[in-house]
């Protein structure tokens, strides 16, 4: 790894810890700091990220990953595996959603088999290079090296074989209906795969094409369990092909180009042209340049080597999803196969994200640093509404029936409020109103319990709608988002007042006796018995201690319900001081999110899941910002690492990574669909953010160390700044922020009423 580091030794807190804590200066190539293996040491029972080493370009349509798991296993790559079964084209957003548009490539020597166990080879991480733009692995059983480098819709492979007359490349098109055809005279393989996990129309196919630079010495295809030499095409439940090569010398290489399309075989051929005119090594460099350009939009200096690695690895994860689901036709037009109605239509489409996760930080991050990308995503959302009648809440690739909330409203509103001006905003406004007032075709589309919510102001506990309290709290925030959008668009007073009123519905679930949110029956009585440590039931993948803070829009109002700022501060403290006890009776066993909270040694704080990730920043709303500064640093230090077990729960399509990226920069979007970020505790000595409008945000942190995590003073463009928040609209004009840090809290800063961040009820006054 060629890193051009300026290394300086600094003292931490005036004392020497293990000699010196080294800080890293400016890095010319941030890609060198990225590890794609972070989060891959995960299992069904305990997640350290539940990621796979995605080999892809930013937001690319097709990802590639080494495959250690069996066909159909959502855990396609686990760090502790000893054998590799192939290199898989994947569109998997998470193991829980599983995959679609998939097939696998494997190289073999002297072992002509399609069986996924018999063809597997031992491998070692010592002979593996896992980078965003390049992957290589040594297949020990075959003395063969496999390399690949991607474009947005294609990938270049290079196989280095030993001297042999029986080198093979296998294409496994997987089961559930597939087709393969070998065309020897063109040194080509074509076909399609239909294997998916749902969310697709009946005519769904992933059409693939592969071309080789050497002639085939022999050909075989398999159908289900039968391998037949000399057969060139086959359609069955599970098909594939094996093509052979004769290597006269050790080290001889076979080059393969692969691409796919959701539109047609002809479009797959067009997508393959993304590799025209470049060699394998040139594509590697091209991919590196693309990643360095995107990662380099944020330059951080003056962190430890681990902090730098975590930051840029998290930034890489923040630039993967939602992925492109559109293609470019022969005339240069943007087209997409609709995962909603099965038609081929013009315009953008993106997919593979769950808004329950990503509305919180990932989409606000795109609006700040990559607004031109989210502009295309907004067009894609409008197309999704036109084609399905609904905005997706979890798309993979079409509508999926998981999670709760109606957070597409936040994704649309935050973009508009932050200045992302979609030409489709009227369609999107129509879409968010439709979603806010109707139950959809799936429980997770639109709003389950919409009629109850409109009548009562909450989704009742006793009407057989699960996770009802979580739904109510999220619906209330989503109504706030619609209110913000209606205001910004100058919509009718009736619209504005309706959604503003509904944004206060969180009050209906606050139980004064416990000081927490609680399920409520249709007749207005509280659900009984009530255990605030019970996961699930009225809440989603959490308990009342987690969801009681889901009042993003009105923290001041929540504080009043809890008895005032001091009472809420004590309540916030309790999250960390309570033991990590739990009631798992709703699930019947401790789900992995429970275990991840239990073992983290941070009380009831469950950073491995999304509902509570904003909670630490709420100390800023009650005049105790130094406590936020302390716990933000603790979370960054303890819950993240640059290693395969580097997350404390599911990474979830960039959300948990975007939390780290924002927090490392020193601020966080507690309330998407507003103009504000809440201040935390920046970890780097110097940060330069290159905005798409040509402006820069410069952040300098003086006297910064792990002990000096408390803000003593903040200057904005040279002037003292006491507020606990930053305005997006001012930041994007260009800004210079200077933080002066210290080892002791400054309890006089950020405590006045004018210093506190946005709250709806405060804004009303």
From TrEMBL:
Pfam families: Glyco_hydro_92, Glyco_hydro_92N. Keywords: Calcium. One of its GO terms (molecular function) is peptide-N4-(N-acetyl-beta-glucosaminyl)asparagine amidase activity. GO terms for cellular component: cytosol. Residues 34-261 form the Glycosyl hydrolase family 92 N-terminal domain. Residues 267-742 form the Glycosyl hydrolase family domain. Its cofactor is Ca(2+). GO terms for biological process: carbohydrate metabolic process; glycoprotein catabolic process. InterPro entries: 6-hairpin_glycosidase_sf, GH-type_carb-bd, GH92_a_mannosidase_put, GH92_N, Glyco_hydro_92, PNGase. It comes from the Bacteria. Residues 743-765 are annotated as: Disordered. NCBIfam families: aman2_put. Monomer. This is Alpha-1,2-mannosidase, putative. It comes from Sphingobacterium lactis.
């Amino acid at each position: 790894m060629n890193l051009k580091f300026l290394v300086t030794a600094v003292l931490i807190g005036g004392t020497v810890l293990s000699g010196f804590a080294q800080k890293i200066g400016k890095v010319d190539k941030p890609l060198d700091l990225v590890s794609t293996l972070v989060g891959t040491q995960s299992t069904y029972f305990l997640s350290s990220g539940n990621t796979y080493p995605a080999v892809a370009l930013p937001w690319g349509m097709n990802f590639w990953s080494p495959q250690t798991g069996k066909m159909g296993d959502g855990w396609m790559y686990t760090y502790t595996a000893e054998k590799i079964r192939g290199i898989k084209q994947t569109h998997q957003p998470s193991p829980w959603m599983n995959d679609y548009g998939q097939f696998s490539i494997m190289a073999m020597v002297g072992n002509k088999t399609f069986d996924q166990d018999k063809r597997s080879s031992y491998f070692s991480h010592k002979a593996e290079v896992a980078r965003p733009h390049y992957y290589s692995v040594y297949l020990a059983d075959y003395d063969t090296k496999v390399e690949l480098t991607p474009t947005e819709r294609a990938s270049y492979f290079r196989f280095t074989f030993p001297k042999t007359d029986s080198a093979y490349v296998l294409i496994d098109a997987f089961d559930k209906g597939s087709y393969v055809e070998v065309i020897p005279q063109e040194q080509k393989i074509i076909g399609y795969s239909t294997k998916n996990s749902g969310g697709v129309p009946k005519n769904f196919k992933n059409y693939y094409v592969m071309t080789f630079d050497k002639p085939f010495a022999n050909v075989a295809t398999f159908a289900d369990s039968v391998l037949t030499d000399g057969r060139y095409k086959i359609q069955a439940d599970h098909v594939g092909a094996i093509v052979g090569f004769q290597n006269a010398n050790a080290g001889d290489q076979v080059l393969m180009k692969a691409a796919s399309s959701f539109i047609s075989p002809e479009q797959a051929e067009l997508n393959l042209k993304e590799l025209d005119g470049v060699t394998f090594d040139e594509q590697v460099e091209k991919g590196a340049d693309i990643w360095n350009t995107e990662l380099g939009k944020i330059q951080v200096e003056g962190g430890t080597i681990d902090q730098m690695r975590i930051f840029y690895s998290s930034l890489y994860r923040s630039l993967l999803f939602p992925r492109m689901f559109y293609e470019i036709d022969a005339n240069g037009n943007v087209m997409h196969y609709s995962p909603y109605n099965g038609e081929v239509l013009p315009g953008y489409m993106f997919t593979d994200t769950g808004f329950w996760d990503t509305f919180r930080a990932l989409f606000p991050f795109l609006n700040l640093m990559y607004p031109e990308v989210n502009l295309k995503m907004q067009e894609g959302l409008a197309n999704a509404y036109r084609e399905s009648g609904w905005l997706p809440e979890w798309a993979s690739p079409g509508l999926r029936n998981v999670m709760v909330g109606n957070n597409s409203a936040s994704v649309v509103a935050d973009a508009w409020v932050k200045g992302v001006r979609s030409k489709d905003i009227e369609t999107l406004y129509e879409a968010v109103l439709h979603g806010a007032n109707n139950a959809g075709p799936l429980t997770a589309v639109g709003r389950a319990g919409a009629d109850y919510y409109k009548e009562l102001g909450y989704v009742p506990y006793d009407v057989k709608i699960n996770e009802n309290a979580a739904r109510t709290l999220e619906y209330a925030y989503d109504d706030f988002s619609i209110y913000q959008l209606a205001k910004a668009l100058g919509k009718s007073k009736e619209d504005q007042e309706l959604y503003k009123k509904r944004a206060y519905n969180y009050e209906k679930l606050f139980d004064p006796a416990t000081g927490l949110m609680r399920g409520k029956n249709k007749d207005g009585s509280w659900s009984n018995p009530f255990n605030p440590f019970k996961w699930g039931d009225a809440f989603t993948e959490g308990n009342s201690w987690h969801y009681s803070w889901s009042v993003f829009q009105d923290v001041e109002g929540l504080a009043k319900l809890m008895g005032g700022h001091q009472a809420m501060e004590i309540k916030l403290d309790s999250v960390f001081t309570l033991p990590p006890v739990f009631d798992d009776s709703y699930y019947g066993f401790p789900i992995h999110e429970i275990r991840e909270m239990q073992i983290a040694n941070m009380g009831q704080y469950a950073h491995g899941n999304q509902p509570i990730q904003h909670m630490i920043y709420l100390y800023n709303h009650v005049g105790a910002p130094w406590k936020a500064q302390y716990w933000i640093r603790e979370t960054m230090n303890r819950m993240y690492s640059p290693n395969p077990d580097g997350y404390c729960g599911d990474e979830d399509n960039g959300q948990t990574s975007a939390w780290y990226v924002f927090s490392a920069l020193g601020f966080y979007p507690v309330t998407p669909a507003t103009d504000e970020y809440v201040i935390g505790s920046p970890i780097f000595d110097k940060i330069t953010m290159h905005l798409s409008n040509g402006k820069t945000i410069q952040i300098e942190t003086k006297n910064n160390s792990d002990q000096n995590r408390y803000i003593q003073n903040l200057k904005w463009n040279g002037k003292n700044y006491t507020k606990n928040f930053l305005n997006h609209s001012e930041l994007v004009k260009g800004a210079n922020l200077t933080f002066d840090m210290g080892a002791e809290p400054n309890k006089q800063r950020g405590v006045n009423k004018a210093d506190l961040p946005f709250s709806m009820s405060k804004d009303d006054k």
